[in-house]
Amino acid sequence: MQSYTDATENVRVANDVLQITARATGSTGAEVYYFDDVAVADDAGTVTQTVSDFEGTAPEFTDFEGASATVVTNPDTNGNASGNVVQFTKNPGAAFFAGSFYEVSTPIDLSVNKNIKLKTWSPKIGAVVRVKLENAANTDEFYEADATTTVNNAWEELTFYFSAAGNFNYNRIVVFFDFGEEGPAASGYTSARIKTEGLQEFTYGRVAARAKLPTGGGTWPAIWMLGADYQTNPWPAAGEIDIMEHVGNQQDIIFGSTHDQNNSAGNARTGSTLVPGVSDDFHIYEVEWTSTEIQFAVDGVVYHTVSNDGSLPFNKDFFLILNVAMGGTFGGEVDAEFTESTMEVDYIRVYQ
């Protein structure tokens, strides 16, 4: 996921050039919890029914809203000597109510003793653990209770009180960790976009941009123009002229394109050229735009020409846009090691 900002870390003028930087916002990573030994207990804490100890055949978990659960070897036998436990993962971007459930062959008996005990391991103190018991055949029949972790990175036993639970066939157990809190922020990217809309719009001319491009798989810098009437004449009918596009997954290949009502997206009128070192050195990216044709050049060498006539939208005002996108249909897969990279623009000049 990408967002454009006006933060100085994404856009600024430094060393006499405009810098547009795409940055990975990152993620704190998935939150991992564990639970074990689900049991019914009396008020004194004595177990009266062992529901699940996860030492035999592993139950089949159903995960929802960004959580996942699986039986694993116990990673911390201090305070819990069990061989197997359930690993519960709250993944980046998970909903606040993300959870997992499984079904038991013998229904949970709350007719006399109404407490559920659960061993938990949490990376943080104060995480709300919710246990929901329900009838798999009629999910309107359920009861849920909460308890809060009091230690971190260690096992503890929590008790959940079901004294007000109805007399139902409880054969499904739903577990939530850190209930009420969303999962860690999903990995994403910030960048910037600058446009001259309403400030500098023009028809025809030569546009020259001197720039050094970012690098890295997934980067997608562009210097382009959009028809100024796009709000009432939506893209692609408004027209688009891509003076320069580059994708880090095809390093040093420069693309020039036009998009119109007949040729757009993957069917755009596109040309390309190899320009070694586009991320190491400044190059001049140009468009020569007239009523009869549009030429694309790098460092004065024309590599692509398309025709223009009155049936096309390239005979009216356009404005300039500069941005660095990440990923997408053209940018492709983002390198997992990507942190940040910058497009530097020395100047953009319009000659008429």
Task: Describe it.
With 352 residues, the protein is an all-beta fold. The protein has 2 domains: 2-26 and 187-351, Jelly Rolls; 31-177, Sandwich (Jelly Rolls), CATH 2.60.120. Helix content is 1%, strand content 53%. It is built from 1 helix and 27 strands. The strands form 4 sheets. Strands 1, 2, 3, 15, 18, 23, 24, 25 and 27 form a 9-stranded mixed β-sheet that branches. Strands 16, 17, 19, 20, 21, 22 and 26 form a 7-stranded antiparallel β-sheet that branches. Strand 2 (11-14) and strand 3 (17-24) form a beta hairpin.
Q: How many structural domains in the coordinates?
A: 2
| The CATH topology of the largest domain | Jelly Rolls
What is the architecture of the largest domain at the second tier of CATH? Answer: Sandwich
- Number of E strands: 27
Measured between the Cα atoms of the first and last residue, the distance is: 39 Å
The radius of gyration over CA amounts to 30 Å
Structural class: mainly beta
Helices, by number, come to 1
Order of helices and strands: EEEEEEEEEEEEEEEEEEEEEEEEEEHE
Low-confidence regions: none
Mean pLDDT comes to 95
| Main sheet specs | 9 strands, mixed
- The percent of residues in helical segments reads under 10%
The top-level CATH class of the largest domain is Mainly Beta
Shape call = elongated
Q: What is the percentage of strand-forming residues?
A: over 45%
